[in-house]
């Protein structure tokens, strides 16, 4: 099949492309490289021009692409708001949907459904801390009725909406276009596994700095402050990030434990990459999240958005230093079994083919 993947978040479409190509499909990715992460992409919509020229150039680029990106068997949008700052965004979506055979929308990242229903359907969510720390506002444009109508406009015109985890599945549960949840793909063979060795009896614990509020970094900071004072000779605690993906993976190589986001039911790309590298991961592993992905058990240590759970789990790991190596092996095995990009690509093909 000839497949077009539109938009990028943390390498999700990049990894899916790798899996699809292993199955013999022809895949093109188009988008904005996800900011500072600089994700590789086939058709890059960014330019190196000054901002005001860049905005105009990007508009013409998009309009031109709507005329050339035709006759794909599948077009998949990673999010309804990938062209958010364009007054003709509806036109772009309508053209891409019309000019290609089947179109699908992922439920991934922030969208209006997640903002409208997330705080209602989830026992905890990142919304409030995202507003407080990241946006420094009391409201977000995704909460507006206008945003929801646009989100719904796109959802109604695609063949189906595919969630990447429970958090999005539950927000779309009443939408007739909802399809099966498919796990996030990881190109396992491109991620180097390394035995998880605790050097000099000191556990290295890492939290990647990205969206401070959304990821729950405040809770991690407070936990690290307490743990650092209590175990200065047993722990090395690191918070760092906002790096290109390649540099970020290099930084993670020496870590024993990685703390992902604190307000999630499931694992995002960051946590999955860490698992593939053989790290012990603290993050989202709620029963609902595993059930949504049809996974019976996970090596991920589930945490909640509070300091006590983070401290408790790190202290427990301090008593299990001799088990870290084996825990890291189980992390890698889990990714190979449930998130390998070729296996996930097969799930996408099945869902795409079944949709009428």
Summarize the structure in words.
The chain has helices spanning 12-22, 51-68, 89-98, 112-121, 127-135, 145-157, 166-171, 217-230, 245-252, 269-276, 287-292, 307-318, 324-338, 341-354, and strands at residues 2-6, 26-31, 43-44, 74-77, 102-107, 160-163, 203-209, 235-241, 257-259, 280-283, 301-302. It is α/β, with parallel strands linked by helices and 356 residues long. The protein folds into 2 domains: 2-185 and 341-354, 3-Layer(aba) Sandwich (Rossmann fold), CATH 3.40.50; 188-338, 3-Layer(aba) Sandwich (Rossmann fold), CATH 3.40.50.2000. β10, α11 and β11 (301-302) form a beta-alpha-beta unit. α1 (12-22) crosses α14 (341-354), α8 (217-230) packs across α12 and α10 (269-276) packs across α13.
What is the topological layout?
Elements: E1 2-6, H1 12-22, E2 26-31, E3 43-44, H2 51-68, E4 74-77, H3 89-98, E5 102-107, H4 112-121, H5 127-135, H6 145-157, E6 160-163, H7 166-171, E7 203-209, H8 217-230, E8 235-241, H9 245-252, E9 257-259, H10 269-276, E10 280-283, H11 287-292, E11 301-302, H12 307-318, H13 324-338, H14 341-354
Parallel strand pairs: 1-2, 1-4, 2-3, 4-5, 5-6, 7-8, 7-9, 9-10, 10-11
Number of strands: 11
Query: Strand order, biggest sheet?
Result: 3-2-1-4-5-6
Largest sheet: 6 strands, parallel
Count of the domains:
2
CATH topology of the largest domain: Rossmann fold
Quick description:
By secondary structure, this protein is α/β, with parallel strands linked by helices.
Which structural traits does this protein have?
356 residues, Rossmann fold, 2 domains, five-stranded parallel sheet, 11 strands, 14% strand
């Amino acid at each position: 099949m000839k497949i077009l993947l539109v938009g990028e978040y943390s390498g999700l479409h990049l990894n899916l492309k790798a899996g699809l190509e292993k199955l013999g499909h022809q895949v093109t990715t188009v988008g904005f490289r996800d900011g500072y992460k600089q994700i590789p992409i086939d058709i890059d919509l960014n330019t190196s021009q000054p901002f005001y020229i860049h905005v105009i150039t990007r508009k013409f680029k998009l309009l031109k692409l709507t005329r050339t990106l035709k006759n794909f068997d599948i077009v998949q949008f990673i999010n309804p708001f990938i062209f958010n700052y364009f007054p003709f965004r509806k036109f772009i979506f309508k053209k891409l949907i019309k000019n290609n055979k089947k179109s699908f929308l992922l439920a991934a990242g922030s969208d209006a459904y997640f903002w409208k229903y997330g705080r209602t359907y989830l026992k905890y969510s990142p919304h409030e801390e995202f507003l407080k720390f990241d946006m420094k506002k009391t409201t977000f444009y995704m909460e507006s009725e206008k945003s929801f109508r646009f989100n719904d406009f796109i959802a109604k015109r695609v063949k189906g909406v595919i969630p990447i985890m429970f958090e999005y599945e539950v927000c779309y549960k009443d939408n007739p276009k909802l399809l099966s949840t498919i796990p996030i793909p990881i190109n396992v063979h491109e991620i180097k596994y390394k035995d998880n060795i605790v050097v000099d009896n000191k556990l290295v614990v890492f939290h990647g700095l990205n969206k401070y509020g959304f990821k729950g970094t405040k809770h991690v900071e407070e936990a690290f402050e307490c743990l650092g004072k209590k175990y200065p000779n047993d722990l090395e605690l690191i918070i760092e990030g906002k790096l290109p993906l390649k540099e970020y993976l290099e930084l993670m190589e020496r870590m024993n434990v990685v703390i992902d986001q604190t307000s999630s039911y499931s694992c995002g790309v960051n946590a999955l990459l860490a698992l593939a590298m053989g790290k012990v991961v603290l993050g989202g592993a709620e029963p609902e999240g595993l059930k949504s992905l049809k996974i019976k058990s996970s090596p991920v240590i589930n945490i909640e958005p509070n300091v006590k759970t983070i401290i408790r789990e790190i202290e427990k790991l301090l008593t299990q230093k001799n088990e870290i190596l084996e825990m890291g092996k189980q992390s890698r095995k889990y990714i190979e079994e449930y998130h390998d990009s070729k296996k996930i690509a097969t799930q996408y093909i099945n869902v795409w083919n079944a949709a009428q």
